[in-house]
Amino acid sequence: EAGVAQSPRYKIIEKRQSVAFWCNPISGHATLYWYQQILGQGPKLLIQFQNNGVVDDSQLPKDRFSAERLKGVDSTLKIQPAKLEDSAVYLCASSARDRGLPDSPLHFGNGTRLTVT
Amino acid sequence: AQSVTQPDIHITVSEGASLELRCNYSYGATPYLFWYVQSPGQGLQLLLKYFSGDTLVQGIKGFEAEFKRSQSSFNLRKPSVHWSDAAEYFCAVGDNYGQNFVFGPGTRLSVLP
């Protein structure tokens, strides 16, 4: 099966600019996650979708970050305006994990490395 | 809510030596436990998972992990490390509702030739 696709792989922007990341999950996976991974740290959940509804966005800085998952498939994550501390790798993951399949793992894309200068 | 700790930030072993990476979790019910590996510039790859049954689970690349409920631990082991195993290793725990999924801070493994 095809894996989770993310683009772009790398992005360099100046602070106060905007940026968007795209994710295409594994076909049939209802749950989609966006994680932020700062260098040397574990992934931190930004937002979790179940189909096209938001399950958890408690750690999403909503004043500058937004995400959507139209039609319950692809998703985009946007940062506007970016700050220096947003420099990180942004990972998208998808899973069949839900109440009926709690042991289903997350499958990750290769991530987008964002550098804010 | 569940949580995960990985006490070792960085471990260095010689190639051919055995390896054990520690993971401790906190969760009020039976946890769903996972180990992932992340090579530089890559996403996370699943090594193995545990929910129930035999407490010793086998994974890919020769890794295994043992679930010990009394110690709230899920340590990852490999009998003989290869240079290609150098990477970051993350333990994760999921709740039994299929909702929350939490990662530990990771352990970086270096392998000496």
Give a verbal description of the structure.
The complex is a heterodimer of chains A (117) and B (113). Chain A is mainly beta and 117 residues long. Chain A is 0% helix and 47% strand. Chain A is globular. The relative contact order of chain A is 0.32. With 113 residues, chain B is an all-beta fold. Chain B has no helices and 12 strands. In chain B, the strands form 3 sheets. In chain B, strands 2, 5, 6, 10, 11 and 12 form a 6-stranded mixed β-sheet that branches. A 4-stranded antiparallel β-sheet of chain B has the order 3-9-8-7, with no helix packed on it. In chain B, strands 1-4 form a two-stranded antiparallel ribbon.
Task: Let me know the number of strands of chain A.
Answer: 11
* Derived structural class of chain B: mainly beta
What structural category do the secondary elements of chain A indicate? mainly beta
Poorly predicted regions of chain B are none
Q: Can you tell me the overall shape of chain A?
A: globular
Sheet with the most strands, sense and barrel status of chain A: 7 strands, mixed
Largest sheet of chain B: 6 strands, mixed
Which stretches of chain A are poorly predicted, pLDDT < 50 over at least 5 residues?
A: none
Annotation, overall tally of beta strands of chain B: 12
Order of helices and strands of chain B: EEEEEEEEEEEE
Helix content of chain B: under 10%
Count of helical regions of chain B:
0
* Alpha-carbon distance between the two ends of chain B: 41 Å
Order of helices and strands of chain A: EEEEEEEEEEE
Beta-strand content of chain A: over 45%
Overall radius of gyration of chain A? 14 Å
